[in-house]
Specification:
Blueprint (H helix, E strand, L loop, with lengths): L1 H57 L16 H11 L2 H18 L5 H23 L4 H24 L2 H32 L6
Helix pairs in contact: 1-2, 1-3, 2-3, 2-6, 3-4, 4-5, 5-6
Length: 201
């Protein structure tokens, strides 16, 4: 009888130990997941801040070309990096928030905001599609994004000002320029992705 009671008590103790062990594992797992989410949020905040700084900084860079709206697209370096690290959802959030906040800080939410918004959406859709195919390099994805950014802006300009032929005539020149700007941003994004393991942060 005593032996049976001891076995029963021992069994209950083992069950309690197992339950406590499982609870501890579950708790540690939640802590790890919470820590990862916090690190991700902090890193995305850094990306957003950096992209805003780059966008505002490049607005002071004068490019002596006859075409309107030509920029180096330095902030797109961050967009490409986030696209590869976290995907289109986070890249889209950062891109839209960057345009919104930079617009408020610089010139307000006027026509430039609409041009930039449509441009970034077209760019992200094209870049994400090419990235998913796995057949294009980071630079190739960046060039496609830059080209579709220009195409999106041309569409908006043609729709607003109703001068389709005028703005469409700019398109070949703008695509040629976006080829070089896409190569520039793609080069820096590719080098940064090669040297920095963002997943380890």
């Amino acid at each position: 009888m005593r032996r049976f009671i001891n076995l029963e008590i021992t069994g209950k103790k083992e069950n309690c130990d197992e339950i406590l062990k499982n609870d501890k594992i579950f708790e540690n797992k939640n802590i790890v997941e919470s820590d990862q989410e916090l690190r991700k949020a902090l890193l995305i905040s850094v990306f957003l801040s950096l992209s805003i700084i780059l966008q505002i900084a490049e607005s002071f860079i004068f490019i002596p070309l006859f075409l309107p709206g030509i920029k180096l697209g330095l902030a797109n370096i961050v967009t490409v990096i986030v696209l590869y690290v976290y995907g289109i959802k986070e890249a889209g959030k950062i891109g839209i928030m960057r345009i919104f906040l930079a617009g408020i800080l610089r010139n307000g939410l006027g026509m430039n905001f609409m041009f930039s918004l449509v441009g970034i959406l077209c760019s992200l859709i094209a870049s994400s599609f090419l990235k998913k195919t796995g057949k294009f390099s980071v630079m190739g994805v960046s060039i496609a994004g830059a080209n579709f950014h220009m195409i999106g802006q041309i569409i908006v300009a043609s729709a607003i000002y109703r001068t389709n032929l005028l703005y469409v005539s700019y398109l070949p020149y703008m695509l040629l320029i976006s080829l070089f700007t896409g190569m520039l941003t793609g080069y820096f994004a590719e080098k940064i992705l090669e040297r920095v393991d963002f997943k380890s942060f």
